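Q: Now give one record:
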Amino acid sequence: MASLRLFVAGASAIGAGTLTSHFLLSDNTVHAEKGKPRPPRRTLPTRESQVKTLKSQEYDVLIIGGGATGAGCALDACTRGLKTALVEADDFASGTSSRSTKLIHGGVRYLQKAIMQLDIEQYRMVKEALHERASMLQSAPHLAHPLPIMLPVYTYV
């Protein structure tokens, strides 16, 4: 039985060596087909020419700020068929909107303050925030969706 294993191992080694030398010595090179030539890249317009275009044309919407919120508003306006201009002082997504959470919340902290301090203004703010949240969920379900969250409670009064 041991000699059979030795024979199989030797035959495997010889077969692998033969196969490897065949592929290394043969000229079976696979050549990729040449694709279509790429079109030349467009150069970006200068800032001066962009400002000139902004001054000479009329737009339906002007969005100031090219962060995550501004880019989302521009996308929404364009998909609605509005002629949209977006201006940004720095690089796109370099401002604060790229770092915020974008959560459309109902104002849990304000609700706590309204209840604990019996503050009617805080309650009204929570009520308005929840109304706005419901409107956003209904009018733009592709942009907003409910996100379940669990809050740990360690003590209660």
The CA atoms of residues 106 and 127 lie 8 Å apart. Strands lie at 61-64, 84-87. The chain has five helices and two strands. The first helix runs from residue 2 to 25.
